[in-house]
Design a protein that fits this description.
Largest sheet: 5 strands, parallel
Strand content: 5-15%
Number of helices: 7
Number of strands: 5
Length: 186
């Protein structure tokens, strides 16, 4: 059975790097963040409606990754769990919800409906203990905003019924923390 593990957190907390490293470690694939591709192509002057497009693109990308894993590993025995049956996902609809509400004070009903409908097995919440790194897409270099966003994500995870682990540390320490969380889960 496919296990879907989502990596979330404020910008510049190492989500993409962590997803890629976890996928490599566990010999599987990862689902990239669609927003990065979208904003690089369309520019950073986005609107509320653009966030709906980004959310739909993220869902489509995630569904494509799920199909790749399912086609590669047809279920022959539901009791068999290999690390190839894990999908690491960089960003989900909780991130889209926070982004919509933080920037525009409102959230698209599509995003809220996807939060209800889509199910995940584990969340890894990236702490803000990494230094913020400038990037043409990043908006919140202020430590106050980063900590505020981290707290919003933490509150969301506390109030839902899927296990989560906060991932902290730099470099190998951060990766090992995430690997340990995944291993204890699977």
């Amino acid at each position: 059975m496919l296990k879907k593990i989502v990596v979330i957190g404020p910008e510049s907390t190492g989500k993409s790097s962590l997803c890629e490293a976890l996928a490599n470690h566990f010999h599987t694939i990862w689902c990239k963040e669609y927003a990065r591709e979208y904003l690089l192509k369309n520019g950073t002057d986005y609107t509320f409606d653009n966030l709906l497009e980004i959310a739909k693109g993220q869902i489509a990308l995630e569904d494509d990754c799920i199909k790749k894993i399912e086609n590669k590993n047809p279920a022959t025995d539901n009791r068999q769990q290999t690390t190839e049956n894990i999908l690491f996902i960089d960003t989900d609809m909780y991130v889209m919800k926070v982004w919509c509400e933080y920037v525009f004070g409102n959230c698209h009903s599509f995003i809220l409906q996807q939060i209800v409908e889509r199910k995940y097995d584990l969340y890894l919440l990236c702490n803000t203990d990494l230094p913020w790194v400038r990037d043409e897409l990043r908006e919140y270099p202020d430590e106050k905003n980063r900590k505020e966003l981290f707290q919003i994500y933490l509150d969301i995870l506390i109030n839902q019924n899927v296990p989560f682990k906060i991932v902290s540390g730099e470099g190998n320490e951060r990766l090992q923390s995430a690997i340990d969380a995944v291993r204890s889960f699977i």
